[in-house]
Amino acid sequence: MRVSVLGPLFVHRDGTAVDPGRHRQRLLLIRLLLAGGHAVAPEALCEDLWQGRSPAPAMPSPHAHVSELRAVLERRRGSGRFGTLVTEPAGYALRVPPEGRDTVRFAEAFAQVRRELADSRAAAALRSVERARGMWRGAVSADAADHPFVRPEAARLEDLRQSSAEPHAAALLLDGQVPRAVAAAERLTARDPLRGTGWALLLRVLYLAGRLPETLRRYEEVRRLLAGAPGLDPGPRLRALHDGVLRHDLHGFLTALGVPDRFVPEGTAARTALFRGRRRPSPPGRRRPPARGTHRCGDAHARGSGVRAG
After folding, report:
1. Number of neighbours of residue 165 by Cβ within 10 angstroms
2. Exposed (0-12), middle (13-18) or buried (19+): which is 5, by Cβ within 10 Å?
3. pLDDT tens across 201-249, in order?
4. Which residue pairs from 127-131 have beta carbons closer than 8 angstroms and sit at least 24 positions apart in sequence?
5. Is 291 helix (H, G, I), strand (E, B) or coil?
6. 3-class secondary-structure state, position 88
7. Residue 218 in contact with residue 231, Cβ under 8 Å?
8. Model pTM?
9. Helix (H) or strand (E) holding 45
């Protein structure tokens, strides 16, 4: 059994698509699936499926919907018992293995992307993240989008989906696909212009791609955008990122994307940006000579006049 809810509800049994049935049966399947294998009492099913209103006497009860959905999901075993939609003392439970749920596969693929980026396997990370993002076909549990019981899990998965844009851009950047990396970050800012995470990602990608003027210009853009919204301004992380750009200090730039500095490949735009502005330390015991046209007597004059140097 494979059930997909990253978009409209799809159900496959033994490799063949099956129709879960009418609207209320689809809601029932989604509700039980979101319970993660735990039993849900019939009273809770009524509350969630009818949104606080009891079903009319002429309407099928939750028990009738369970029977109809059960006939679709599985075949009766020889013992007369069921293995997918089961009845327990506490209520009804749906038994779908983790690998049969697209939400679990997406989360596992996302975790794999992080590991591959940490190992500097940019090409493998890019394949994994694009496979994970390709699982999405629309809003989470689109069939039940107007039901409150879906909202917490939908919000969690949508946050995870947006978070996957960061390793996606990082993998594209380290794979040398700079225009696609920038485009991935820009899509995130376009989808939610007031979300600082998308802008931080765009600034990082632009700077690591060696596009400093555009990085500064886009920071000014988001600053003006937030200034037009009452009570909003760039948060501390975005301001710190801007300061790092101005100082050419990349500490944390790549680790924020899940990529350790030491794994950035030689010859890439990210590598060039990583070491831009870093000076080699002077050998021990040697001091850099003063620049032409400067005089050491300035310090003495300042001391003698009682004015503090600097």
Report:
1. 21
2. buried
3. 899 888 888 888 999 999 999 888 887 766 667 778 888 888 888 887 7
4. 129/164, 129/167, 129/168, 129/171, 130/168
5. coil
6. strand
7. no
8. 0.70
9. helix 42-49
